[in-house]
Design brief:
Blueprint lengths: L3 E2 L3 E4 L4 H4 L9 H7 L8 H4 L14 H16 L3 E3 L5 E8 L2 E11 H5 L3 E2 L6 H14 L1 E2 L3 E5 L3 H10 L6 E4 L5 E7 L2 H12 L4 E5 L1 H13 L10 E8 L5 E2 L1 E5 L7 H8 L3 E6 L10 E6 L2 E7 L15 H10 L14 E5 L3 H10 L5 E5 L4 H9 L10 E2 L9 E3 L2
Parallel strand pairs: 6-11, 8-12
Antiparallel strand pairs: 1-5, 2-3, 2-21, 4-5, 4-10, 5-12, 7-21, 8-11, 9-10, 13-20, 14-18, 14-19, 15-17, 16-17, 16-19
């Protein structure tokens, strides 16, 4: 089977995109989704977060929630708000957030290649979140949340996407957060074949975000009949060139100093890092450099050269891993950040002021700003069939839900 396939996308009718598009289902809680969808009857949140249409306090995993998602989807199709393309297509999809511009390809990605790890993973999944997506796909008979993928250097694909996105778009909308989402339909048979062949020539493509969505698509495919032509053999995806993708830093805040005074803490850190006070906030600009904020004072930490081992595996070379190994675990006593409630995580999109706020409030004792993980780091970890530490990557801009969905019927 092909690595990717055109799909008959279900997408907003002409002029309806602003009414439909919504943030990804997993970046809003129910209360936030209810507020954002207020007065917007065609917001995709009525499909991705359908508990907002049920009484407050409804369990978001209750059967009636998934039934409501199916009902709302059918209603949007019936009313002509969403329409399905007549033939399978690819779609060029551009995201613009400030000076960040990414142009990728909406396509079906092969479940078979996901199962054999040609579509590479870098994260563990949680059964409860997988189960949720399986039930949602089953109820709606559709994949409504795209998986974010990255492809390695492929100039021919870059060239096709640049050409496809040079004309008049089929959809252009700006979301509430100011991010611009633009779509072009690619339905020329020769171009479809050229794109399919170009992806088939790739050794691998990489999941950036959407491990639960891809895992649930695999489970749906395994549950349904074996038919090579069935739409459930492919899952909804948007694949961007890796060199255009932006990973923001994912920083750490810690509740206490593990029984140490601030002075004792600094002394212990100094065994492994050079420690320098800074009059301004410290945003690391290179690997093995960290910003630390404590007692309204910023510090620049630099890992000692003798602790940097170029022969380490891809996970151990990550700046997050080195901070954990030489500071967070041995000094602060946090060995499992997945389960220890003394540590929390702050996405870099909130800026260094987000770290200062958590510490200045007294909620946290110390904060660490970390050099952002690079796409090459993520790909190396995935190539090693390994997993990233928790909260290693924060991708921006986010894909929107509702731009293209993949019907399984």
């Amino acid at each position: 089977m092909n690595l990717i396939s055109p799909i008959r996308g279900l997408r907003p009718a002409t002029g309806r995109a602003d009414d439909v598009i919504a943030p990804p289902y997993d970046v809003l809680n129910t209360a936030e989704a209810r507020e954002q969808a207020e007065g917007k009857p065609w917001s995709f949140l009525h499909i991705s977060k359908p508990e907002i249409d049920l009484p407050e306090g409804t369990d978001p995993y209750a059967p009636e929630v998934y039934a409501k998602a199916a009902e709302n989807l059918e209603q949007m199709i019936k009313e002509g708000v969403l329409k399905q393309d007549e033939k399978p297509c690819y779609y060029a999809y551009r995201l613009i957030m400030g000076d960040i511009i990414q142009t990728g390809l909406v396509a079906g990605a092969s479940v078979a290649d996901y199962d054999t790890n040609r579509i590479r993973k870098h994260e563990y999944t949680r059964p409860v979140k997988e189960d949720d997506r399986v039930r949602q796909i089953d109820a709606t008979n559709a994949q409504t949340g795209p998986v974010l993928l990255a492809y390695p250097d492929a100039p021919i694909v870059d060239e096709i996407l640049a050409k496809a996105s040079a004309g008049t778009p089929d959809m252009d909308a700006t979301a509430d957060d100011g991010i611009q989402h633009t779509l072009w339909v690619i339905d020329d048979d020769a171009t479809l074949l050229q794109l399919t062949d170009a992806f088939n020539a790739m050794r691998a493509i990489y999941i950036a975000d959407g491990h639960h969505r891809s895992a649930s698509a695999s489970r749906i495919c395994a549950q349904r009949s074996k038919d090579d032509n069935a739409p459930w053999n492919y899952f909804l995806s948007v694949t961007f060139p890796h060199h255009e993708m932006k990973i923001f830093d994912y920083n750490r805040v810690i509740k206490d100093l593990n029984g140490l005074s601030a002075d004792e803490f600094i002394v212990k850190i100094s065994h492994h890092f050079s420690v320098e006070k800074s009059d301004t906030p410290v945003k690391p600009i290179q690997t093995s450099e960290y910003g630390m904020y404590m007692d309204k004072q910023w510090y620049r930490l630099t890992l000692n050269n003798n602790l940097i081992d170029a022969s380490e595996d891809a996970v151990s070379r990550l700046d997050i891993s080195r901070l954990a190994k030489h500071l967070i675990d041995p000094i602060l006593g946090i060995s499992d950040p997945r389960t220890d409630n003394r540590i929390d995580f702050v996405g870099g999109i909130r800026g260094l002021e987000g770290l200062e706020k958590r510490v200045n409030s007294g909620e946290m004792a110390v904060a660490f700003a970390i050099f952002a993980t690079r796409m090459e780091d993520l790909m190396n970890v995935a190539d090693d069939n390994d997993v990233m530490p928790p909260k290693s990557t924060w991708f921006e801009p986010k894909l929107a839900d509702g731009i293209v969905s993949h019907l399984l019927k």
